[in-house]
Write a structure and sequence with these properties.
21% helix; 17 strands; disordered C terminus; alpha+beta; seven-stranded antiparallel sheet
Length: 428
């Protein structure tokens, strides 16, 4: 790995990013250390993933009381669960006594959380039940007095519940914030919930999912998703469905980048045309694809009849775990007749995603080249990438800002045809 040109404190300073702060017509990409430096990655964990809202799972991963899923946010293990009333909860995965990890499984069903070290137990709402004398502790009756902590001075169980994290949902996605007082999720998302309201994303049902272990920085995955310069060369099949010339910006105020393909093309080989659209879709929504990246790690490819979702979880500066899902409107998800089309759709998205994985891994290899100091962003349809990088810089330097909208202009504007030479130029 190339040596850093910067001190870790430089990654918190505005002047480090001067080349990317310029208008897109004059800007360079982020410094290469943003992708190849372990020191940058650690600052990024603190400044980006430990603040704001991070996508971690789907609402349907936790179907009822006692359902548990562990996720990772900024390197921290977090427990997601539903309490007895069905309310969604998030807790740091650590016992309040001596810091043992409480849950080691990725998914499980529990009635309570019990520490394996000293048997402290917690309810699904995080309250401390016992420390350690309580029903089911396994301590023989003739020894229970030895373990009695009821007279422990200045000890109130109410003060020792599980450490909570903020949790909220949108579009069938669960978000977690490690901040003590985060912005409301709706403020973070800006106008995106209104823009996508017609698709009724909260009502979709996940019908397929896959995971990918990618040897690349998470930002390379994000930036690849949000620019269409590479489309004809990397995705010859996708370009049949989502033509470069039909792309428009889809960006209002909010911490997201957005693109729209309108109209979305009718490619029968992908299988998606067989599926019926979400109920009530009309206007542009009924004929368009919306491609959204929510800072920091959520991608949504929203089509009239399905949504392809990516949650990218950074593991290191050069490794990312990606979970992808396909969600269908409820009326379609339960129809066995759509199974062949769904198989085609899953194969299509896997093929497209594998093409992306291959290219971003090659970029990760190339960005280790010490001579490379950043590339020029000079194309109109790289503006969403420029927006993303500047949102990231804001977080790195400690600026709390919701970017304005950028309009819905075409992303690709062909150069005008050369002026026709007159048949008989003057003076001939």
């Amino acid at each position: 790995m190339p040596a850093d040109r910067f001190d870790p404190h430089d990654y918190r300073r505005e002047e480090t990013y001067a080349q990317t702060r310029a208008p897109v017509d004059h800007a360079n990409t982020l410094i290469p250390e943003a992708y190849r430096s372990a020191a940058f990655f650690e600052v990024e964990r603190q400044r980006v993933f430990s603040t704001g809202w991070v996508a971690v799972a789907h609402v349907t991963d936790l179907p009822g009381p006692g359902a548990v899923r562990t996720v990772t946010v900024a390197g921290q293990s977090i427990i997601l669960t539903r309490d007895r009333a069905g309310g969604l909860r998030a807790f740091h995965n650590v016992c309040r006594h001596r810091a043992s990890r409480l849950v080691t499984e990725q998914t499980c069903q529990l009635k309570r959380f019990r520490c394996p070290y000293h048997s402290w137990a917690y309810a699904l709402d995080g309250t401390l039940l016992g420390a350690p004398l309580f029903e089911g502790s396994g301590i023989p009756d003739d020894q229970r007095a030895i373990f009695d902590t009821s007279r422990l001075p200045a000890f109130d169980k109410a003060d020792y519940g599980l450490l909570p994290a903020h949790v909220a949902t949108w579009a069938n996605v669960i978000f977690v914030s490690l901040e003590q007082e985060p912005l409301p999720l709706r403020t973070w998302l800006g106008d995106l919930p209104q823009r996508l309201a017609g698709y009724r994303l909260d009502e979709t049902t996940i019908v397929a999912e896959r995971s990918y272990d990618i040897a690349a920085n998470w930002k390379l995955i994000a930036e690849n998703f949000m620019e269409y310069y590479h489309l004809p060369w990397v995705h010859p099949e996708l370009v049949k469905v989502s033509r470069v010339e039909d792309h428009y910006r889809f960006q209002g105020p909010g911490l997201y980048t957005g693109m729209s393909t309108s109209p979305i093309s009718r490619d029968t080989e992908s299988g998606w045309t067989v599926l019926t659209g979400a109920p009530g879709l009309d206007g542009d929504d009924a004929v368009s694809g919306r491609f959204i990246w929510v800072l920091p790690n959520l991608a949504l490819s929203v089509l009239p009849n399905h949504v392809f979702t990516v949650i990218a979880t950074p593991v290191g500066h050069d490794r990312t775990i990606e979970r992808t899902t396909i969600g269908l409107p409820a009326h379609t998800a339960g129809d066995p007749a759509v199974a062949p089309a769904l198989d085609m759709l899953a194969t299509f998205w896997d093929h497209v995603n594998c093409e992306d994985v291959e290219i971003v891994e090659r970029v990760q290899e190339g960005i280790a080249t010490e001579a490379y100091v950043g590339g020029r962003m000079c194309f109109k349809f790289e503006e969403p990438l420029h927006r993303f990088q500047n949102m990231l810089i804001d977080r790195m330097v400690g600026i709390d800002r919701i970017p304005d909208g950028d309009g819905d202009d075409p992303m690709f504007v062909p150069a005008p045809a050369p002026a026709q030479r007159a048949a008989h130029p003057s003076g001939s």
